[in-house]
Amino acid sequence: MQEDLRFFHRLADEITRKEVEEPVVKPIDPKELFNKIDLELDENGTDDEELQELLRQIVLNTPKTTTKKFFNQLFGGRNSKATLGELLAVMLNTSMYTYKVGGVQIGIEKEIIHKVCSLINYPSTADGTLAPGGSMCNFMALLMARDAANRNIKTDGVQQSMTMYTSEESHYSITKNAMFSGLGTAQIRRIATDHKGRMLPGELNAQVHQDMKDGYLPTFVNATAGTTVLGAFDPIDKIAEVAKEHNIWLHVDGAYCGSVIFSDRYKHLVKGLELSDSFCFNAHKMLNTPLSCSILVTKQKHNLKHSFACDANYLYQTDEDEYNPGKTSLQCGRRNDALKFWVLWKSIGSKGLEKMVDQQFHLAEAARDYIRNHEDYTLYSYDDSISVCFNYKDVDPKVICNQLYKKGELMIGYGSYQGEEFVRLVTINSNNENQQIMDFFKVLENFTEKELIAMNV
Ligand SMILES: *Cc1c(COP(=O)(O)O)cnc(C)c1O
Fold first, then answer.
1. Of the candidates 37, 65, 93, which is a domain's last residue?
2. Which of 298, 320, 343 is the last residue of a domain?
3. What is the mean pLDDT of the chain?
4. Among residues 394, 393, 390, which one has the least CA distance to residue 381?
5. What local confidence, expressed as pLDDT, does residue 457 receive?
6. What's the domain range around 113?
7. Is residue 379 part of a domain?
8. Is residue 228 within 6 Å of ligand 1 at its C-beta?
């Protein structure tokens, strides 16, 4: 063990050095991958020296998501305290189903859930869990909604036509979850959005009325706090009025930007959140915690238990259910995703988390300012979003993004809204400063001029 840890330490040093020297790796063509790097598993093992060199190659050729040139996804950067917590969780290797096995770690998870519930003004009856990703949190919320609408589904299965409502701009996990939950994708009602990508509550209301007239049981409304492309916030308070009137479960998918709950300046974007029945956010997105770290909370703990508790006397042998969170989770064995977030939160406090969130909005504002002041650019996104969508000189955004990637210059992706395609700059790495955003534009401009326009690509 000691020798492996020493190797890890040396490699970690090299990784952090290389992240500064060469922040982007040149991608390996997947057709050549197995020829370039020895990934084959054999009957015989590999001695330590050879294994270490191989691991070095593998690590140094993996895309560098933590560097200042990664803007491709809704995560990025490395927080050292959160990473420390994650490394400790790996060393401890507990499973989060019982107090007997998880011990103190169960208390750590409970504290996170408790603090989040009180931050969003949920009542003392609220509870939650940590699930492997936002998609899974959304799935759990849908299952609770389904079972709350009909207490017999657990035994009888879904026998009614239950409808669910989500905006056209919502995440694709909502569609997948319709497939898994037994509701079926034909029962999804995709509600239109306004020009800024926010769900139209009037359209929602009209659709619910129509469905009730047609004999459906409206079961689940999903509002998004930070849509995946534009970073738009659905008007939760207005949507809640519709949901309450018809007694429909309201879930808020805050996987991307739900962390605004930590910011005095930006929490107004989720106004009315306390009216929801469940809410989730990904600490591995805005809060810079290593993947994955997703928190799901719900207003009435009994719904969580009703949908997920199942007895197993080979597992639950000590302590009350209160301290055995296996009774409120989709899984059996469950990774300890709580410790890394707790170490981060403990070290910088809620005030520190607030600063991270505010910095991301600040960087987005700087990017939008730059775009507005340079006539070669067209802006497609709006204020109060950390997704900055734009085009440069009518060059195809797909070509810009794919070529930047192939040449190892930058990691950036594209998106589309209402027929327009554009580059999407995500300013989610709060370690970045204005300078990195300006550097981003310089790299993009130089590259586009030299490699695309001059070469006529
Ligand atoms: C990222 C995202 C998800 C999915 O979260 P995972 O952790 O990747 O499963 C769901 N909804 C929205 C709005 C997202 O941005």
1. 65
2. 343
3. 96
4. 390
5. 65
6. 84-343
7. no
8. yes
- Rounded to the nearest angstrom, the distance between the alpha carbon of 138 and the centre of ligand 1 is 9
Is residue 292 reached through a cis peptide bond, with omega within 30 degrees of 0 on the bond before it? yes
Q: Are residues 128 and 258 in the same domain?
A: yes
Rounded to the nearest angstrom, the gap between the alpha carbon of residue 168 and the centroid of all alpha carbons in its chain is: 18
Which tens digits make up the pLDDT trace of 388-428? Answer: 999 999 999 999 999 999 999 999 999 999 999 999 999 99
Is 160 inside any structural domain?
yes
Domain-located, residue 154: yes
Residue 205 in this model has a pLDDT that exceeds 90: yes
Around Cβ 85, how many Cβ atoms within 10 Å?
27
For ligand 1, is residue 133 a contact (CB within 6 Å)? yes
The pLDDT of residue 452 is 82
Provide the residue type at 175 as one letter.
Answer: T
- pLDDT, tens digit, 9 for 90 and up, residues 44-59: 999 999 999 999 999 9
Task: Say how many Å lie between the CA of residue 296 and the centre of ligand 1.
Answer: 12
CB 304 within 8 A of CB 298: yes
Q: Determine the residue of 233, 253, 296, 341 to mutate for testing ligand 1's pocket, defined as the one with the most ligand atoms within 8 A of the Cβ atom.
A: 253
**Do residues 181 and 147 share a domain?**
yes
User: What is residue 134's predicted lDDT score, i.e. its pLDDT?
Assistant: 98
Answer yes or no: is 173 within a domain: yes
Query: Hey, what are 97's tokens?
Result: 């189903």
Share of the chain above pLDDT 90, in %: 94
pLDDT reported for residue 51: 97
pLDDT tens digits, residue range 114-163?
999 999 999 999 999 999 999 999 999 999 999 999 999 999 999 999 99
How many CB atoms lie under 10 A from the CB of residue 29?
A: 9
